[in-house]
Amino acid sequence: MAEVHATRRERLRERCAATGVAAALVTRPANVRYLTGAAPPGAALLVGPGAEDVLVHLRPPPDDGEGGPDDLRSVVLPSPEGDAAVAAADLARERQADSLAVEEHHLTVTRHRAVSSVTEGLPLTDLGAAVEQLRLIKDEHEIAALRIAAEIADTALGELLESILVGRTERHLALELERRLVDHGADGPAFRTSVGTGPHSGTARHVPTDRRVEEGDFLTVRLGACYRGYRCEVGRTFVIGTAPAAWQIELYELVFDAQRAGRERLAPGVACRDVDRATRQPLTAAGHTEGLAPWTGHGVGLEIDEDPQLSPAAMGKLDACVPVTVEPGVHLPGRGGVRIDDTLVVRPTADGGPELLTITTKELLAL
Amino acid sequence: MAEVHATRRERLRERCAATGVAAALVTRPANVRYLTGAAPPGAALLVGPGAEDVLVHLRPPPDDGEGGPDDLRSVVLPSPEGDAAVAAADLARERQADSLAVEEHHLTVTRHRAVSSVTEGLPLTDLGAAVEQLRLIKDEHEIAALRIAAEIADTALGELLESILVGRTERHLALELERRLVDHGADGPAFRTSVGTGPHSGTARHVPTDRRVEEGDFLTVRLGACYRGYRCEVGRTFVIGTAPAAWQIELYELVFDAQRAGRERLAPGVACRDVDRATRQPLTAAGHTEGLAPWTGHGVGLEIDEDPQLSPAAMGKLDACVPVTVEPGVHLPGRGGVRIDDTLVVRPTADGGPELLTITTKELLAL
Predict the structure, then answer these.
(1) Number of Cβ pairs closer than 8 Å across A and B?
(2) Using CB atoms, which residue from B62, B108, B172 is nearest to A106?
(3) CA neighbor of A234 nearest in space, from A248, A220, A247, A245
(4) A6-15, B13-22, B289-298: which has the minimum mean pLDDT?
(5) pLDDT per residue over A21-42, tens digit each?
(6) What are the Peptidase M24 domain coordinates in residue numbering (chains A, B) (predicted)?
(7) I need a labelling partner for A187 at 20 to 30 A (CA). Which of A29, A290, B128, B329 fits?
(8) Domain A2-135 has CATH 3.40.350.10
(9) Class of A137-356 per CATH?
């Protein structure tokens, strides 16, 4: 794996060279992890000048059995109250870099000032989202991790569906799901598990409450596993009781059709906004214009919400090997609603089209 | 409660007025929550100019039954992809503030630039840690919330101690503790629960692994509850089996004495570094100089790690009604160690001295 990270840093180095930047200071944790395989709290990575990179730690790497990044030089700050970014910038100056690009979208104004204060004549520029752009297209190791993350989430969700749900609270169901994720080998939940019953169903980020599952409810569940740092998500809506009401079947079919339309639109070269439009259009055509989320999907990887965004204003096109969610939902205030959420990897039609990672059934189950 | 928040904003307004600042833009989530009672993701609070404050939301407040901040004007951005800080700054300009202080330790360089771009002639200054300073001394409502948080953590820990521990993994014990915290009414864990067995015991922030509890192990547990936003922590070390070894008893007594010395030093007017020294001195005198954490305690509140720091370099003195942890630990590489961690509120001697919130016994229990 060490070679993978060295190759990624080499790509960043080339990118910097192309814009005349001698060295890059990477501080955003997911970016540090992508480029080194580790993300100790507060660490900073100096890429360049020249070929030797340095990871500055606040504390000696823990003896956690996972091993550290062994292919690059590691420096531990003398005081853990220091700032690794400042120390890394100081190294860049010592090594006579003639420019240093920093992540202005991650460094606070205060930290940026502290970095400037040690770099003296060395001009600071903006690295922008250079590392995030490298992270967009995943390699097969990354996709393998996402596939396992999705399998864990599917398994946890499947087990929950076999248990008695009526009478249990949203908070307990969410906690049980998170415990099952870890039981099945997840590092932890990929994000805070959302369980919404009755009037809470169908919303994107409902925070579980003490409301109990009742007969006749819609139940919306959204969860994800984090596996070796990679995060997926799956969301499903169920009906509690023997027979769904007519409005429930109708709403479910509408969201199901919207989600399928979005999934089917995924292909290399397709504009992100076109995927959003395909997902969104069935919902707006049925009159659900209010309260729709501003996106109908997004990239996943080392973070649960990364580029690309699938939204009306999104720029850019999809590429092969980009994992995204497709997750339309409709929420009727006071009544509840439906959300269906999958993680898929964009693949060319010749390779069989989009690869569905979250394979829990999307039939409307009455539990 | 609305009145409490209005009073807090009034104090911030006075503080700004004293330094010639007309309006303040607050973006750090815990600070927004302190001043309004709510912290919707991405929200920004404009305090001033004048008496009317505005909370800018990215999305309409969720219908979560908790109610929103009802004593101040609320504005929802037209697009949730916007930046509430930029919108709030634009409002400050419209309302003809002649200066605007922002949280430079929270705003990234990129967001700060976006804010500058709408404020035109309006000079931006640094609000610094003005709100954090207001948060230092807690009122009785805040201390009551911390007291409940501590009670929940004590209860969860007490229940765990009644169960069979040998053979269970660190990860399962940590998850069970987190489930119990929620069972007993916590919003959630105050931080990631740490369970360390055998050679992992005694460290500050051990991430639970699949190691199982064995006879003869030290077992270190560190957990906390979050209740109405307020976070406490408690940490204990136990011995597994019928009789602790001599080295275990000796090490335990050493850390126990250090922790007691720190607790007994807590009083209004005492320098933070003196509390650290009282806690640290017994450990260094016994030769444990390597690997000691850089602090032996810290403030708690809306964040689990806030001012004051109890460390050798800390400036400032304690005040009454400041909740802090006292948490020395010694870790012997390969063997394990002991940590003991309490949350207490600084009180004058006339009021009975420091108020211990986490009351789980600190006797060395053999489980």
Answers:
(1) 69
(2) B108
(3) A220
(4) B289-298
(5) 999 999 999 999 999 998 888 8
(6) 145-347
(7) B329
(8) yes
(9) alpha beta
